[in-house]
Amino acid sequence: MTNRVLVALDRFEKAVVIFLMGLMVLTVALATIELAVQLIRDIAAHPYYMLGIDDLLDIFGMFLLVLLGLELLETIKAYLIEHAVHVEIVMVVALIAVARKVIILDVKTMGAMTLFGIALIILALSLGYYLISRAFQDRFHRPEDGKSPRHDRSVVRTEKRVSSQSEPVASA
């Protein structure tokens, strides 16, 4: 009975992840089309086909939004394939999201403490990304037994609930 429930939960989880991937693919495709339409419209509307600073910032924000969607899609794909959350990818998604916000931010209307807070968030995310990359680089890319180093991305693996022999398998 317990095994059937675990198998059902595993199937449900995979179905939800696949559905989320489909939604993310649709969202990224629509955002890319919107970016192309906005870019063409903005270029055609300006004399000499030169964009103003505000238009460029909007377009750069849209570019980063598409990249953010692609990174989220990569995270969902990694979870579906490996039952793993790639910590580096999550940090990159957070950095892209903050960078996008900074690019479209109007600093003239923001208070000093708000700008200081945003700077601290950027610093914390950058430091966190560096430390995670460094920790996993030391852990996975340093040959301790003379063999060639592993080239895994940093991941936090979740425990597989059900294997093909119906016994839990813990991943490293």
Explain this structure.
The protein is mainly α. It has one domain. It contains four helices and two strands. Helix 1 (2-45) runs antiparallel to helix 2 (53-82), helix 2 (53-82) runs antiparallel to helix 3 and helix 3 (87-104) packs antiparallel against helix 4 (112-140). The two termini are 28 Å apart.
Order of helices and strands: HHEHHE
Report the principal-axis shape.
Answer: extended
In quaternary terms, these chains amount to: single chain
Broad structural category: mainly alpha
Radius of gyration: 21 Å
Strand order, main sheet: write it out.
Answer: 1-2
Whole-number average pLDDT? 81
Percent helix:
over 70%
| Uncertain stretches | 148-154, 158-172
Instruction: Supply the number of helical segments.
Output: 4
Can you tell me the number of structural domains? 1
Strand content: under 5%
Q: Mind summarizing the main beta sheet?
A: 2 strands, antiparallel
* Ends apart, CA distance between termini: 28 Å
Number of strands: 2
Core attributes:
mainly alpha, 172 residues, extended, disordered C terminus, two-stranded antiparallel sheet
